[in-house]
């Protein structure tokens, strides 16, 4: 059976250069924005939680948080971080979003930092339905992804950066019939040479709104960033928020 790109992509190198480099100030802004839509002290599910930065931040704000991911490395780091920071109203579990079976258990479900769109359209929608079904009545679903319209308007075929003597090169290709962007990433350094492929389905705001409606979500709002600015074609992100019908 062919391995999925996610099995190789989310490893220690990705954690070092793309997760641990995220600033606490940004995480604080994101969770402060999210907090305004959730019931105070409610139960929150963080799907694709990674190293737990949003989960821990929300737990510190008084929410009862469950973080799920498929990476043993990331979950172990998240658990250690929560213990170190003495955060007790939180737990981390190894669960694939495709296999979730939560039913009406959470006041809020979040899926942040482009953790949606990893599979084919049918599977992506099944995941969205799983997220919706995990919500209690009037619970809130918040998804944060890149804005396809902005990406295509400002498409960057190749980027290159250096960090700690490691060179990171990315080459991208957009497939218009599937709306998938394929990213070929190379890490090159002393005694290091690795490459990765990422395939992610990019959505427009209109597509996401229609998916939300099909997943029994209402009162849908779309923002362009975590400062709460109005969404536009020039917004780098799609932050879409809906309430369980």
Explain this structure to me?
- By secondary structure, the protein is of the alpha/beta class.
- The protein has two domains: 5-147 and 204-244, Rossmann fold, CATH 3.40.50; 151-199.
- Helices cover 31% and strands 35% of the residues.
- It has helices at 5-9, 12-19, 24-35, 53-60, 72-84, 121-133, 148-153, 205-214; strands at 43-47, 64-69, 90-94, 106-111, 135-146, 158-163, 166-175, 180-189, 192-201, 217-223, 237-244.
- The strands form two sheets. Strands 3-2-1-4-5-11-10 form a seven-stranded mixed beta sheet, with helices on both faces.
- Strand 8 and strand 9 form a beta hairpin.
- Helix 3 (24-35) crosses helix 4.
- The radius of gyration is 18 Å and the shape is globular.
- The termini are far apart.
- The model has no long low-confidence stretch (mean pLDDT 97).
Q: How would you summarize what this structure contains?
A:
The protein has 245 residues and is an alpha/beta fold.
């Amino acid at each position: 059976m062919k391995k999925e790109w996610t099995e190789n992509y989310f490893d220690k190198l990705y954690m070092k250069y793309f997760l641990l480099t995220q600033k606490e100030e940004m995480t604080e802004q994101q969770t402060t924005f999210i907090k305004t839509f959730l019931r105070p002290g409610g139960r929150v599910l963080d799907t694709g939680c990674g190293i737990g930065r949003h989960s821990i931040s929300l737990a510190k704000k008084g929410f009862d948080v469950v973080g799920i991911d498929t990476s043993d490395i990331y979950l172990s780091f998240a658990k250690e971080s929560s213990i170190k920071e003495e955060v007790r109203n939180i737990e981390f579990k190894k669960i694939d979003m495709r296999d979730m079976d939560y039913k009406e258990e959470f006041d809020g479900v979040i899926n942040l930092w482009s953790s949606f769109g990893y599979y084919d359209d049918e599977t992506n929608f099944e995941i969205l339905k799983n997220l919706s079904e995990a919500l209690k009545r009037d619970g809130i679903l918040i998804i944060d992804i890149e804005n396809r319209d902005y990406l295509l308007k400002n498409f960057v075929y190749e980027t290159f950066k250096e960090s700690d003597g490691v060179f990171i090169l990315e080459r991208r290709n957009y497939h218009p019939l599937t709306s998938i962007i394929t990213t070929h990433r190379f890490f090159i350094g002393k005694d290091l040479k690795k490459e990765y492929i990422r395939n992610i389905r990019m959505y427009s705001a209109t597509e996401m709104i229609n998916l939300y409606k099909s997943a029994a979500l209402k009162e849908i709002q779309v923002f362009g960033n975590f400062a709460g600015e109005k969404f536009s074609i020039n917004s780098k992100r799609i932050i879409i928020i809906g309430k369980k019908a």
